Amino acid sequence: MIVAFSITPLGVGEDVGEYVADAVRVVRESGLPNHTDAMFTSVEGEWDEVMDVVRRAVAAVESRAPRVSLVLKADIRPGVTNGLQSKVETLERHLST
Fold first, then answer.
1. Potential cystine with 67: which of 1, 10, 44, 59 (Cβ 3.0-4.6 Å)?
2. What gap in Å lies between CA 70 and CA 73, rounded to an integer?
3. Integer distance in angstroms from the first to the last C-alpha of the chain?
4. Among candidates 27, 34, 79, 16, which has minimal Cα distance to 58?
5. DSSP of 12-71, one letter per residue?
6. pTM
């Protein structure tokens, strides 16, 4: 599965980059394939391991913020691997024709 998620600390002011970095650090240290852009972090793996990473990323922010918002979108497709890369490659192939 691929999960794209965004964690936003609330009640900490306008500059939230250091809090978001705590969450992204958890994802990167997980060893699962991942990608972070300006809006979301995507992580790929099996259900239990991906959801554990999301839970730990939320906990990392929650430990420093009084409230946390989580937006999550999941693509649950058993048997598919390397989706983070292959989906983009397919899109790029279609764009080049």
1. 10
2. 10
3. 28
4. 27
5. S-S--HHHHHHHHHHHHHT-S-EEE-SS-EEEES-HHHHHHHHHHHHHHHHTT-SEEEEE
6. 0.90
Three-class secondary structure of residue 92 per DSSP: helix
Domains in the chain with CATH codes: 2-95 (3.30.70.930)
CA 15/CA 12 separation, integer angstroms: 8
Structure-block tokens of residue 24: 């992204």
pLDDT at 80: 83
Q: What distances in angstroms separate CA 33 from CA 42, 63, 85, one per listed residue?
A: 8, 25, 9
E strand or H helix at 8: strand 2-10
With tokens 């990167």, the residue in question is 28
Query: What does the block give as tokens for 67?
Result: 């409230």
The model's pLDDT over 33-47, given as tens digits with 9 standing for 90+, comes to 999 999 999 999 999
> What distance in Å separates the CA atoms of residue 25 and residue 52, rounded to the nearest whole number?
14
